[in-house]
Automatic annotation (TrEMBL):
Protein name per the record: Succinylglutamate desuccinylase / Aspartoacylase family protein
Signal sequence, renumbered to the chain: none
Sections of the chain in a coiled coil: none
Pfam families: AstE_AspA_cat
Native source species: Pseudoxanthomonas indica
UniProt cofactor(s): Zn(2+)
Entry-linked InterPro entries: AstE_AspA_cat, Peptidase_M14
Membership in a protein family: Belongs to the peptidase M14 family.
One GO-annotated biological process of the protein: proteolysis
Sequence ranges assigned to domain Peptidase M14 in this UniProt record: 31-308
Amino acid sequence: MTALERFHPIGTPGQPWTDADKAQWRASQVRQRSYADDVLGLIEGLRSTFDVQQYGELDYQADGRFPLFAVRTRDWQADLPVMLVTGGVHGYETSGVHGALQFLRQHGQDYTGRANLLVAPCISPWAYERIHRWNPDAIDPNRSFRADSRAGESAALMALVAPVREQVLMHIDLHETTDTDESEFRPALAARDGKPYEPGEIPDGFYLVDDSEHPQPDFQRAVIAAVEQVTHIAPADDNNEIIGSPVVAHGVIQYPLKKLGLCARVTDARYTTTTEVYPDSAHATPAQCNDAQVAAVRAAIDYALTHP
């Protein structure tokens, strides 16, 4: 047995986790911050200018109940396109949550009469509190946007967007890539699935994930250009890749979003992208990461409005 095979302390190397392993993993997850204080309090402050909709509730027994909220344009107009913004699919990716809320506070009303905004800022509140990637069942919500989803977080968002699915012109999903992806989450994934852990590299900087099945290169370039005014863009590695995927343009890689069950393809929006901010960079602050997410959202909406 190599050190890499035994990197993660839970489970038996080469064997997927049992229910007992998953229970052990869940018991090891410690609440480190408050969804109610950090997120719901900020959402409450938006009620004077937006409609706030509870679209579900997650009941995680001893860990508590978590209401799910979306923020919507107050004067919703059926003939306007819908701009969908999601954050916190992975609860530990902080700037995704707070960047979405900051965008609403600072710029949400800029689009009144031009577009309908639908923002779900914290899709995974249990994981937000525990600074983790998965939900308490050791399921990654961002691989679970499917009709038969076993992740309550993903199923709730799909139900939220179903009535307006055909109206969504643009969807931007706000994420982070962190050092803990490599130190904790990828080893845990390998252990959970009974596979060997293969070390990778963490890119230093911001990048985007386009849909390889429906690419929109000009849209991605517009978002990168806006974010580059706020923070640095991740360079390609020596293989011209970022996290193992070929770089197709400055700061842009591609995934087959629907095939992988990713949030950014929860609708058939013409314009989709997933942001990835690097908060552990020596060249970026938490505030700068939030600002980068805001710049990305604004650029995405502006591009979609001028290229309908």
